[in-house]
Give the backbone structure.
Amino acid sequence: MKLTHILLVGFVAGSSHAAIAKRDAFDEGQPIDEETGKGAPLLAGTNRQVDLQNPSGLGQQSSDAGVVPNLKWSFSLSKTRIFPGGWTRTQVVQDLPQSRDIAGAQQHLRKGAIRELHWHKVAEWGFVYNGSILVSAVDENGKFQVDKLTHGDIWYFPKGVAHTVQGLDEENEYLLAFDDGDFDAVGVTFNIADWLAHTPKAILAKNFGVDESVFDSIPERTPNILNSTASTRDVNSPDGEITGNSSFVYHTFQQPSEPVPGGGGTFYKIDSTNFPIAKTIAATFVTLKPGGLRELHWHPNAEEWLYFHSGKGRASVFIGNANSRTFDFEAGDTAVFPDNSGHYIENTSDTEDLVWIELYKSDRVADIPLGQWLALTPADIVASNLKVPIDFVEKLKKEKQVLIKAT
């Protein structure tokens, strides 16, 4: 795909899906370029369903070049750990080696089920996408927060904060993220039953001022997720509750979304500017309309980790020195775009929204769009550099378009 074509698509008139990609042999799972005659059919030794889901991996995008490492993982490939009351499946750096800043997980709790009381050496971020949950946390000052979260709500627990999560609806599910890609390493997560099971009962009895028999039924192995009933007890503390700018909870859809001059969808930003406690994980929640484009841009402050929740999309990632690679995405996929790499995201569906979450190991969401950069650079310099008409440059929009609608 030529640069001038992408520029025109992104900055002048928008584009329909059909203008960028057509139904061809690649979409049928075959590495054959019918226009150039390059390629040949796959005859054996391939996973047909994976080929159909990843036409870009078959060579569909002629602009791809050089060597770009794999930047995509599917939660469907992760090992699912099942427990009484729920399950967890993770994506850590061992699954996606390029994802050094962020690890992710999906977790499911049935009604009343508890994610065992625990804490982490890293910060935890969560987003509820099904059901409702109760989160409970205590900080180093003896203050606490107990809050009910529903669809779209977010929590952030700084490193070391003690917490737990309980399912309230019949079935509940959420996305988890942590500000360290090597989340499964020893010394990152500390579960309460695991700790107490490895502490002498005499010490436990002395610590709490009770008889040792109180601890006779402590689980020998950490339960991680366990069945229970929904909590009905209130909590009080002489040190008070965690509220205001110290709150661990953010109710996303109770807040306004960000302006989207390109008209291609909705864009929520959740970072320390509106969720002050979130010092190490900044986020966006994005809905891109059919055929729309997340404009060409890069992030100057961090690598970008993504979770695709629904729909189908495509992104090309440019890492410099003539190295670029295109990936196809659908629900359940995660991805990482390297620090400062240039990229876009396109909704490849004609009928379905593409919904995803972006995360950054940073206190803020920051991006620099290609269109705005060129529009705010002397037009004759841009025209000379790119060998494009100067009137094209002069028509470029000077404000971020963010999400560009299809036309």
